[in-house]
Amino acid sequence: MVQPNPGRLRRMFEIFAVSSKLGLTSFGGPIAHLGYFHEEYVNKRKWIGELKYAELVALCQFLPGPASSQVGMGIGLYRGGIAGALAAWAGFTLPSAVVLVLFALLLQGTALADGGWLHGLKLTAVAIVAQAVWSMGVKLAAGRSRATIAALAAAATLLWPSGLTQVLIIAASALVGLWLYRSSPTPGALPAPSGEEPQSGSIRLRRSWAVASLAAFVGLLGLLPLVSRWWPNLGLQLFDVFYRAGSLVFGGGHVVLPLLQSEVVPRGWIGEADFLSGYGAAQAVPGPLFTFGSYLGASIHGVTGAILATIAIFLPAFLLVIGVLPFWHRLRGIPKVQYALQGVNAAVVGILLAALYDPIWVSSVQETGDFIVALLLFAMLMFWKLPPWVVVVAGAAGGAILGWIG
Fold it and tell me: Which regions span the lipid bilayer (predicted)?
C-alpha cells in the first residue's frame, strides 16, 4: 500500500490555501486577476520567475478558455504537478462558485425573482458587456481590416444565432487572419527566456500525460454531442453544453455569454431574465467569470447541475494547460499561429458586440429610465474606474428605484 507523502500533502494544501485567498479577494476580471497573480506568485512567493510567468500568460491568451484560471492552473502545475494544478483551480474557483449557486437557489420559488433590483442586474450586464466590447475592440479590432472582421462576425452572429455559427465564424476568421497578415511582422512573439530552462524541462509531467490530455480534450469535444443525442439525459446534456462552451471561448470570460445563451435559453432550461440576472450577479463576486456556469447549472438542475456545469466548463481549460504547456516553447514562435489569432480575436469582438445587442440590450433597455441607469453604470466602469462589485450594487439599487418610481 502506497503511503501518502507528508511533504507533498503540505505543498498541495499550501497551493490550495494561497489560491483560495486569491479566489476570495481577486475582483475586477481576468486582467486584474493576472495582476493579483503576479504580486502573489512572482513577487511575494517566488513560485515562478518573471519570464516564465510572461510566457505562461501569453500561452493562456492563445488558448480557448478562462485565461486567468489557466494561468493559475499552470502555476499549480509548475509547483505541484497535476495535483497542484487541481488544487490551484479548486481554490480559485470554489468561493465564487458557491456564492453563485446559493444565489441561484435563493431565486427559485421566491418573490426575489420579481424585484426591481433584479432588473437592475440586467442593466448592469448591459454596462459591463459594453465596457468589454469597448476595451477589447480598441486592442483587438483596431484598424480597417480587423474592424471589418469584427463587424461581419457580429452581423453573421445576429443573422444566424447558434453555437455552430460562432464556431464557423471563429474558424473562418482564423483563415482570414492567416491570409491578411501573412506579410506583416510577427505580432507578440516572445523571445526564449535566457538563463531559464525550457518549459518542458521545468514541469514534473511526462509527455505521455500531455498527449493523453490533448486526446481527451479533442475526444470529449467530438463524442459528447453524439452521446448526449443517443442517450438523452439532462445531466449528460448539461455536461455536453458546458464542456463545449469552455472549449470554444476565445477572448475572456465575457465571450462565454453568447455561447451559453444560445444553448440554454432556446432549450427552455432557463428564462432570459434569470440568465441575465445571474450574469449580472457574477460580476459582484471575485474569482473567474466562468463560475457563471455554476449559477446556470444550479438554476437548471439544482446542486447536481451546478457540480456538472462547473466541472464541465473548466475541464477543457485544465486539459489544454496540461496538454499544451510542455510544448509551448516550440509553438510560441510560429508566425502562422499568431497571424490566425489576429483574425480570431477580431471575430471575438464582433460576437460579443452581437451579444450586447441581443439578448442583453433588447431584453433589458425598455424605456428611458433603463437607458439612463445603464449609461451611468457604464460611466462608473469606464471613466470613474470603480470596482465591478460597486457597479453591481449600484445597478441593483438603480433597478429598485426604477421599480419604485414605476
Answer: 82-105, 117-137, 149-181, 209-229, 241-260, 306-327, 339-360, 372-405
